[in-house]
Design brief:
This is Lipoprotein. It comes from Actinacidiphila polyblastidii. Keywords: Signal. Residues 1-29 form the signal peptide. It is a single chain. The protein has helices at residues 4-17, 23-48, 51-56, 63-75, 182-203, 219-225, 259-263, 267-283, 293-305, 312-315, 317-324, 345-362, 365-375, 381-389, 393-408, and strands at 81-91, 107-118, 126-137, 140-145, 167-170, 174-178, 211-215, 238-241, 254-257. The strands form two sheets. A five-stranded mixed β-sheet has the order 5-6-7-9-8. It has 409 residues and is an alpha+beta fold. It is built from 15 helices and nine strands. Helices cover 46% and strands 15% of the residues. Helix 9 packs across helix 12 (345-362) and helix 12 (345-362) crosses helix 13. It has three domains: 4-157, Nuclear Transport Factor 2, Chain: A; 162-287, 2-Layer Sandwich (Zincin-like), CATH 3.30.2010.30; 294-409, no CATH class.
Length: 409
């Protein structure tokens, strides 16, 4: 029986042999074949927790990159990985042109897809893109950098373990992967554990019944994870990432917490945020391009607020102020109204919530969840509303406007 370390070492040996000899046909395939072998050894070393093998594929001349990769490997220690693999999409100058190596070594660029799954949580892999530089030395390919493409817009996706040592906190229905203080991470897990049963009660089955929370230590780190500037999410306590719809499998969603905004919330606010985001996890397989944001964001708030005992005035203060001033919205919130930083974003969320609350109150909660699932199956929203409620879009909008006046005026 071959041990895990021996198996990983064998892959490294294959890497070192993979690009020497073999004639013209081999020379033509050398970069792709050699790079794939390097990455296969790297993937095995991550899964087998073997730092020696992991570092063996790094260019021995790339001291700073090797030091950074040593930290990344250590940062992954507590992450419960079930799978980790790389797929080479393309190589060569069509990807990007890396700067010349200091010693003139042959060099090439590669676009690579990293896929990973968390043990016990992910039914589908999380997939991210990396733009890598490889150097050829002594007939062998080595990984030399992961940031050379940034100058030309080819940025490697940032992962939590690129930002610091990840701690894993397991709850009854949750996994929190985070940076920073352990008590704060335990608090996220406690809130998520309370959120999952609420969501299951409202939405039902057909989702894993668990949630994975990623908790960076700063707003800037959150922005990097989402590949955007931190200002875009300054006032947003959390977001959910993942692929809309997932065929037959549940997608690998992540709830990413903004520690600055989340930390300023009351206990009720923190619970509402994580229940809202967990609802997005539950509804993901029934969410698609046809699902309007007022419905997807509205149902998430409806689940978060439905057992709060709070009034519409308390939960929709911005929209209430508009309605009392005679500024009743003429249409349901549009997608642009939900963009971070959009004027009236609070009113958009509140209006979507009250549209879903109206359906649950005046028809039934089951009607609301059935409508949500039906919308993703395609067809015009007007037709889906008629099927579920007996009202077309115009009549539904008019009824919603009347409902706002009755609840908020």
């Amino acid at each position: 029986m071959v041990g895990r370390r021996a198996a990983a070492a064998a892959l490294v040996a294959a890497t070192l042999a993979g690009c020497s000899g073999g004639g013209a046909a081999h020379a033509k395939a050398a970069p792709d074949a050699g790079i794939r072998t390097v990455l296969a050894a790297r993937a095995a070393s991550v899964l087998h927790r073997d730092p020696t093998t992991f570092l063996a594929g790094i260019d021995p001349h790339a001291d700073r990159f090797a030091a950074a990769q040593r930290k990344v490997f250590a940062n992954l220690a507590q992450v419960p990985l079930a799978a980790w693999s790389y797929d080479v999409v393309r190589t060569g100058p069509a990807v990007f042109t890396p700067p010349a190596a200091a010693d003139g070594a042959p060099r090439t660029a590669a676009e690579v897809r990293l896929s990973y799954r968390l043990r016990g949580y992910d039914a589908q892999p999380v997939v991210s893109t990396a733009y890598l530089t490889f150097d050829r030395r002594g007939g062998h390919w080595y990984l030399a950098a992961d940031d050379d493409g940034a100058a030309s817009g080819h940025r490697t996706d940032v992962q939590l373990w690129d930002q610091g040592r990840v701690q894993a906190v397991r709850g009854a229905h949750s996994l929190v992967l985070g940076l920073g203080a352990l008590p704060r991470l335990k608090g996220y897990a406690a809130d998520a554990d309370r959120a999952v049963p609420q969501v299951a009660h409202a939405w039902g089955t057909g989702w894993p019944g668990e949630v994975v929370v990623e908790a960076p230590a700063t707003l800037a780190q959150m922005g990097a994870l989402l590949d955007t500037g931190p200002a875009a999410y300054r006032g947003i306590a959390a977001v959910t990432t993942g692929e809309a719809g997932a065929g037959s499998g549940a997608p690998a969603d992540r709830v990413i917490v903004n520690p600055d905004a989340f930390g300023q919330l009351s206990s009720f606010g923190r619970q509402a945020v994580l229940t809202h985001e967990t609802t997005h996890v539950a509804t993901r397989t029934a969410t698609g391009a046809a699902t309007p944001l007022w419905l997807s964001e509205g149902i998430a708030d409806w689940v978060a607020y439905r057992e709060s005992g709070r009034t519409a005035d308390q939960l929709a203060p911005e929209l209430a102020a508009d309605v009392r001033a005679g500024r009743v919205p003429g249409a349901l919130p549009a997608a642009a109204d939900f963009r971070p930083g959009a004027p009236g974003i609070a009113q958009a969320y509140e209006g979507g919530w009250l549209a879903c609350r109206m359906i649950a109150d005046q028809w039934s909660p089951q009607t609301l969840t059935s409508l949500y699932r039906a919308v993703d199956r395609g067809g015009a929203l007007d037709a889906r509303l008629r099927d579920a409620l007996g009202l077309g879009l115009d009549a539904f909008t008019a009824r919603w406007r009347t409902y706002l006046k009755g609840e908020l005026a």
